[in-house]
Amino acid sequence: MNNVSVITMFFLSGFNETVSHRFVLFSLSLLCYCIICLLNVSLIVIIILHSNLHEPMYILLCVFCINALYGTAGFYPKFLWDLLSDVHLISYYGCLIQTQVIYSSACGELSIPALMAYDRYVAICQPLKYHSIMSKQRVIRFAWFLWFTNFCIVAVNTFLTSRLKLCSPYLSRLFCVNWSIVQLACFPAQTAINAISANITISIYFLYGVFIVWSYLYIIQTCVRSIENRAKFMQTCVPHLVSLFTFAVTKLLDITNMRLGSKELPQTLQNFAAIEFLVIPPIMNPLIYGFKLTKIRKTICKK
């Protein structure tokens, strides 16, 4: 154990395949990040400035957009810098912080839609109780509690990783990922608790997914009986479902690549699978909600 060196820096070897196209990738990535910021900030500002949008559903949408900005801020600035740099380094603690930010945001991409699903369930299935159950103050408290819980769950995984002795400073990724750091451990026996914690975390958010599916199945069953509810479902629930499906597919690809991915896969393909959830959902979500939700669309059209 005394021969194990202390890792202070990580080399992000996932950038090796980007050298020949880095200026093109930089331009596209910068454009993508600007679009993400513009769309999400615009939606946040519209919701904040217009009192007719100060309702639980739109407050949750505002939180959703803030979460997207938080997560992408943990990735894009460093990624853009690395695309223009000849050496792709990140400090050990910087790596842990990046992991914490990106993955607590990713957890929010499931927990916040779960609260949105509950909001729609109460609005459509128990409309007479809606205002007493889903008040503005209660929704804000719920959203804050979920975000804090996400942060703490990821922090536990990050702390367990920080205890490991590492034998290599090379991460075959474009950014820091908790499980990729765990795989660098010198003593695999010490990673058992990390695997248990990671599986518990995945199970928790899988249950969020189950709750969302159950909520919408119940909503669909209720909507079949009423034309009014069917219209409400199409206007407010369909964007949630499209958003959830987009995130689920992109994140599933990332997890599959991380846990089961073969080293024989081209690095370019691995990189694409890794960053999809940081590119597609943050752009798609504000577009989907902005065009589909009637009140927001009307507010935008008035300008």
From TrEMBL:
Domain G-protein coupled receptors family 1 profile: 39-289
PROSITE patterns assigned to the protein according to its UniProt record, in alphabetical order: G_PROTEIN_RECEP_F1_2
Alphabetical list of InterPro entries matching this protein: GPCR1_Superfamily_Member, GPCR_Rhodpsn_7TM, Olfact_rcpt
Gene3D superfamilies registered for this protein in UniProt: Rhodopsin 7-helix transmembrane proteins (1.20.1070.10)
Domain of life: Eukaryota
Membrane topology of this protein: Multi-pass membrane protein
TM spans (from-to): 23-49, 56-76, 142-162, 202-221, 233-253, 273-293
Subcellular location: Cell membrane
First and last residue of the signal peptide: none
GO MF annotation list: G protein-coupled receptor activity; odorant binding; olfactory receptor activity
UniProt cross-references to SUPFAM superfamilies, sorted A to Z: Family A G protein-coupled receptor-like (SSF81321)
Keywords from the UniProt entry: Cell membrane, Disulfide bond, G-protein coupled receptor, Glycoprotein, Membrane, Olfaction, Receptor, Sensory transduction, Transducer, Transmembrane, Transmembrane helix
GO cellular component terms given for this protein: plasma membrane
Protein name: Olfactory receptor 5F1-like
Organism: Maylandia zebra (zebra mbuna)
Upper classification of the organism: Eukaryota, Metazoa, Chordata, Craniata, Vertebrata
